[in-house]
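User: Reviewer 2 asked us to show a designed sequence for the structure in our supplementary figure. I'm pasting the structure tokens here. Could you produce the per-position amino acids so we can include them in the response letter?
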């Protein structure tokens, strides 16, 4: 590790230019919070986890795909890449919103308590210009199937950032993603990350103004897989969305975040298109009733048979 710092920087720039020039991020680990500490949900009550419904229904705590942040009573902000079917396919297709469950008010990923609230997704509004190769416009709104109650201290919205971030500001990231490159974390983790110099970041990753980077050039603390979509909190506001990085907490490669202040108008515009008069009722019997599931499976099977065999 005696390579001079400048030489390392130069090497990294060459590597990232090569990656960017070839238009792929194959080495990119989609985000974790590495190097953080445990916190209780009451300290970050806007933090949610998004889980794959099928796995979640089989075993509570499984199926974590991403994080997110509540920004109003029925809307959470997350990363578009979390919901894309095939991140290499163009145009990007998204999974059906019914495949996901949002869990709010929970510190532990695998245990619910009296503050825990679950919602289904009525709609996923991913940014139209989300680019799967550059991860530009990596933002999506999650429209919940019901109003979140603010009665519990464990569930709240976070205001959108209105401030211009200055280099060196210490922000916070949270998540249940990988704590090391190996396992996932059962308890919510938080880590402080400073906003890095824009010019340095652009030199490493060639970022547009819609993305920002934060972390430590020496590595050790970062977001990692499973944390994507989660908030970057600066001065109590939602300043960024965990988007991507190269590795997790690797020296020389800080995390990249969607710059939320760049998307405030987009968020307001998209929110205005949502139909707040509609919501499906989340029937928990529907989630757990084996009999009902068997019936639907039988119907689906019948439809497939009819479809395939020309009945
Ligand atoms: C994703 O899209 C690429 C490019 O069209 C295709 O080659 C690949 O097979 C797709 N993968 C899946 C899992 O659909
Ligand atoms: C994504 O960005 C790359 C690099 O700027 C560009 O070449 C490509 O056309 C973009 N893809 C889409 C779907 O806009
Ligand atoms: C984030 O976006 C805002 C609004 O477009 C812009 O003023 C700011 O400079 C951007 N931040 C970074 C770090 O690029
Ligand atoms: C979205 O619209 C609803 C209904 O008008 C409003 O109550 C809420 O504050 C808005 N949320 C955001 C994030 O703009």
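Assistant: Here is a per-position design you can include in the supplement:
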């Amino acid at each position: 590790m005696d390579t001079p710092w400048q030489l390392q920087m130069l090497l990294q720039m060459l590597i990232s230019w090569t990656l960017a020039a070839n238009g792929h991020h194959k080495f990119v680990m989609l985000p974790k919070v590495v190097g953080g500490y445990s916190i209780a949900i009451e300290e970050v009550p806007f933090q949610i986890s998004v889980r794959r419904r099928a796995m979640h229904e089989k075993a509570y705590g499984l199926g974590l795909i991403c994080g997110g942040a509540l920004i109003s009573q029925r809307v959470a902000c997350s990363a578009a890449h979390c919901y894309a079917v095939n991140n290499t396919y163009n145009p990007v297709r998204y999974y059906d919103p019914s495949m996901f469950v949002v869990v709010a008010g929970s510190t532990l990923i695998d245990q619910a308590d009296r503050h825990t609230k679950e919602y289904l997704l009525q709609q996923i509004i991913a940014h139209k210009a989300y680019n799967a190769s550059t991860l530009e416009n990596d933002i999506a709104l999650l429209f919940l199937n019901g109003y979140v109650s603010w009665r519990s201290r464990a569930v709240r919205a976070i205001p959108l950032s209105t401030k211009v971030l200055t280099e060196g500001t210490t922000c916070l990231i949270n998540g249940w993603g990988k704590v090391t490159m190996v396992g996932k974390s059962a308890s919510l983790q938080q880590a402080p990350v400073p906003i890095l110099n824009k010019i340095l970041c652009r030199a490493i990753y060639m970022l547009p103004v819609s993305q920002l980077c934060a972390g430590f050039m020496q590595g050790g603390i970062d977001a990692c897989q499973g944390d994507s979509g989660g908030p970057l909190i600066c001065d109590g506001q939602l300043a960024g969305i965990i988007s991507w990085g190269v590795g997790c907490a690797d020296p020389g490669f800080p995390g990249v975040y969607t710059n939320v202040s760049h998307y405030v108008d987009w968020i307001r515009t998209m929110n205005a298109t949502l139909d707040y008069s509609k919501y499906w009722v989340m029937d928990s019997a529907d989630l757990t009733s084996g009999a009902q599931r068997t019936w639907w499976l039988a119907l689906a099977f019948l439809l497939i048979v009819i479809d395939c065999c020309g009945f």
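For the response letter, you might also mention the following. Residues 7 and 287 are 56 Å apart (CA to CA). The two ends are 69 Å apart (CA to CA).
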